[in-house]
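Look over this record as teaching material.
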Amino acid sequence: ERIHTAVARADLARAREDAAKALAELAVAQTETSRVREEGAREQEALRREVEELRKQLETARLSSGGGDLRTAWRLEQVEGQYATAQAEVTRLRARELELTREAGGWQNRAQFLEARDRERSQRSHA
């Protein structure tokens, strides 16, 4: 009986440790997901503003010179290329966010399972 109780307590301690690790991993995944989301949004917004500003400059240059400021047009082309690259990165970051969300869900399910198992074992050891 004592051996059975000692084994049950050891199993319970391991299960609690596993649950704590799973919850810690979940917290890390949630933090990483938030960071990725915020980083992508900031980068996208900065590039959007820069493209808009250069478009305004190009339009102003066209109106004032009758044609177009080649330097501004070239710069706009460069920024639009950077914007396209940033859009691709945002897409990649969103995919990573979904991946992390799925992982976090798995860890959360594991933590819930381990907690339920702990409760069940605890109830059995006290019965």
